[in-house]
Structures are given as C-alpha cells and as structure tokens.
Amino acid sequence: RRSRWVRWLLAGQLLTGPLLLPVAAQTAPQLSPAAQVRSVGDTLYPTLGQAGLDAVHYDVHLTVTQPGTRALSGDVNVTLRARRSLPLVSLDFLGPAVTVALWNGQPVPFRQDHAAGKLLILRALPAGQEARVTLRYAGVAGVLPDPVFPFTLGWQAVPDPVNVGGGANFAFSEPDGARTFLPVNDHPSDPATFTVTLTVPPGTTAVASGERVLVTDTPDTPDTPGAHTVTFDQKQPIPTYALAVHLGPLDAVDSPGVPVGAGGTLVARRDYFPPGTTDAVRAPYRRTGEILKALSDWFGPYPFATYGSAVVTARLPALETATLSTMPVTSSSERVIVHETAHQWFGNRVTLRDWSDVWLNEGFATYAELLWTEHQGQDGQVLADAWYATLQRRGTRPLTATTQGEMFDSSAYQRGALALHALRRQAGDDAFRTFLRGYAQGGAAAPSAAPERAAQVVGTDDLLDYTRRTLGEQAARVLRDWVQSSVLPPAP
Ligand code: ARG
Ligand code: ZN
C-alpha cells in the first residue's frame, strides 16, 4: 500500500501560513522532515488522517446555546497513541478557531490550517506512547459540500421556521464530515470509542451514539440559562463518520428491549421523533425489534448495547449513525430501516480500510433487504432479479470504487449485494450464515500493527482471503469475478 500513500506536505504550509502562536512555535521541538508527515493514504480521500496515528478515545463536550444555527463550542479530549514515531500530531478539523490546546494538561504549540483542514499539534509522539490532547473552540461549524449530492456534509442546522419548539442540529458525516465539528483522525481505518457530553437549552432533547450515562443541570451562565447536560458513552470503537449527535425538540419513544446482544443480552430500544411526526411515518419504526431479531439470526449478536432511529426533517439520505440511525422523514420505510440496521454490523462494527472498499458496507446492508424480504415470507430471488436488471440497464463497474462519485452508486449497492447472493448460491444457506457471522465478528480482518483495532478493519482483499479460507477456492473465484470483472457476471 506504500505506493498509494500520498504525502501531505507540511513545509510550505508552515512557511507561508500565519502562525497562530508564533512565540510558542519557536520553542517547539525541531520538526522532522516534512515528508515524514503523511496522511493515511486513502485512495479516494488522499489528504485525510495521519498515518501511524491511533486515536483511541474522543471525550467530546459540545455546547449549543441556539439549536438550529451553526454556532457551537467544543471542549474535546483526544487520547492518542503513536503506532510509529510521529514528528508531530495532525488532526483533521474544519471547525471554528481553536483557542486552547493542551498536551497532557500543559499548553502546547499548535497551528490551524483552515485551507488544508488540518490542526497541527507541534509536539512529537514517540512510537508506542500515548498522549491526551485537549482542544477548545467556539464559533461556527465548518461547511463541506458533498462531492456528488446536493447537500452539505457534517454538522447540520435545521432552523425552526414554524416555531414548533426550536431548531435542531445533527451530524451527517459520511464520509468525511465529522471534521466540520470535531477535531478527528478522520478515517474509518482508525475507529475509536467516544464519550459525548451535550449541553443544550431547556426543552431541547440531546442524544448521541452509545448509552446514556448522566443527565445534570448546568450552572447558569449568561449563555446557558437553564441548560441541561447529558452524556453518552460509546464503548465499542466506531468510525468517526458514524458518530450520531442529535439535538432538538425531539420526542423519545421507548420500546421493549430485544434479546439480540452477545449471549442473548437485551439491547435497549429508543427512537426519537421531531414534533408533528405523523403516525404513518412512525409506524415502520415499530418493527425495529423484529428487524434486529431477523438480522441477528444471520449476522450474529448485535454489536452494541442500544439501538434506535432519530428521524430528521432535512432532505438527506439515511445514515447508519452508530446505535442511532439518522432517518429522514422521506426515508422512513421498513426497507431503509433494515438497511441502516444492517450497517450496525457492516460499517460500524466491521469498518473500512479504504473508502474505495465502501461496497463492503453497502453491499452487505443492501443484501440485508433481501434477507428481510425472505423473513416476511416473500421470494428474495425476485429482488435479486430486479437488482440484476437495474445493473444491466444502468451499466456496472468492478466493485472497488475509483472515484468519490462511484462510492454510493448502484454497483456499490446492488452489485455488492449480488456478489453476496452468488456466494450464498454457491455455498448453501448454512455455510453462508457461518460465513456472515464470522465476518461480522472480524474474522476477515488481517493482523496489523494495531492488534486491538485490527479485528474490525477490512478491505476487499481481506474478504477474498476470508472467503477462500471459509468457503473454499471455488467460492473465492466466484467472488473475485463479482469484484473484478468489467462485465456483469452471470445472474445468481
Ligand atoms: N451509508 C448511507 C446508506 O446507504 C449512504 C450515505 C451517502 N453519503 C453521502 N455522502 N452521499 O445507508
Ligand atoms: Zn447503506
């Protein structure tokens, strides 16, 4: 992969950009050659992330005093570990100006390059060592247009034109929008745990990925009269784009827990709806428990402690934010709920090594739609045939995406799903179920420099190896054809 690493050239930036802390910067340790600072080297997003940096945990405190606007303030503690010696630490950040940076509690020189979207912490981190970096900022969230679709990634603001209880904000970050409101190592190959604390005005409901652990009243300040604070703990590592944050005038609706966790433990169920959500929109969410059961039957235990959906009025796609899918009113169908629920296993538990492998997320989630159809007593083959016809009509490509524009196309979704259908036809239902369960448990991940994270990061090659190991040479050949062929393989 070394050949794909793109170097993020630091020297020019340091010489030409304004130094935010010129005095402190002079006392910074000598920087190693610029070429040693490099991004993760993603094929489609060559500037994201820092190679060798492991962001282990993000402890995030966001304060929003005016929901529905883009104003926010942040106090973020990132626990970082160096997989190799780093001459400095580079985070992705498009948010407001950072006013305070601390390294294990002590001030540290830093430089914020807004144009490059990088926040440089000018301190070396020796291989194997850990540091806690504190960053404080206040202002307006960054704006990042989606490269293909007509919307903005990252921090969303939904004003309240009809005055039904205040505006709302939420995160829609896939693939690289988390950096509009959080300083992050913004790449799915570096999943992390999160503690998210949200301080919001009275009457505003706030929720994030993970389990709710604490609700307190916040001491009044001129900015936050009557505010309250709530904390969520996401204990299993997830990719940065999958972090859910929602705040607004939301109704929480609890449902009975579902015994789909490891060893049959109960998974808590709670959905969130904006004011005025009709019963027609709410109805399909009542099937979420049954969907969790049907999917865990194929995929194995649900990987998190809680699950639900947060419905939004904004015009966006649906997104599989961890433990709490983000569901536009217009996508509130059973099929889309099934799809986003499946991503909790495929995307959030098992994460991507490279964005060009995004079909691994979308193919498995789309295939879940067929499994649900069968669970309903309908013929899944009808759906598979329809996918095949779509691809014949629209044309198709090998599964590894070569441009950002291909990431969410019908090849990623329908061809990806048909590749799995072909494997199932080849292997039979029992072997296919074992294959899916092993993959969801991280069975395809190759060992790497970070063993504790390696079990969940995969690429297409890992899936091919895993297929050969578990289903045999013939099945691996079938999958390779679906992955690589420029024409559509025979209909499964
Ligand atoms: N992962 C989402 C889904 O299929 C799609 C997200 C599309 N993202 C985007 N930036 N266009 O469930
Ligand atoms: Zn999807």
TrEMBL record:
The Swiss-Prot or TrEMBL record lists the needed cofactor(s) as: Zn(2+)
Instruction: Print the keywords alphabetically.
Output: Aminopeptidase, Hydrolase, Metal-binding, Metalloprotease, Protease, Zinc
What Gene3D superfamilies does this protein map onto? Answer: Neutral Protease Domain 2 (1.10.390.10), tricorn interacting facor f3 domain (2.60.40.1730)
Question: What CDD domains does this protein's entry cite?
Answer: M1_APN_like
- Residues in domain Aminopeptidase N-like N-terminal? 56-241
Where in this chain does the record put each Peptidase M1 membrane alanine aminopeptidase domain? 323-441
Q: Which reaction does it catalyse?
A: Release of an N-terminal amino acid, Xaa-|-Yaa- from a peptide, amide or arylamide. Xaa is preferably Ala, but may be most amino acids including Pro (slow action). When a terminal hydrophobic residue is followed by a prolyl residue, the two may be released as an intact Xaa-Pro dipeptide
Q: Name one Pfam family in it.
A: Peptidase_M1
Task: Look at the named UniProt entry and state the broad enzyme category this protein falls under.
Answer: hydrolase
- Tell me which EC number(s) this protein carries: 3.4.11.2
Question: Cross-referenced SUPFAM superfamilies, in alphabetical order?
Answer: Leukotriene A4 hydrolase N-terminal domain (SSF63737), Metalloproteases ('zincins'), catalytic domain (SSF55486)
The entry sums up its family as follows: Belongs to the peptidase M1 family.
Name it: Aminopeptidase N
Q: Which organism is it from?
A: Deinococcus aquaticus
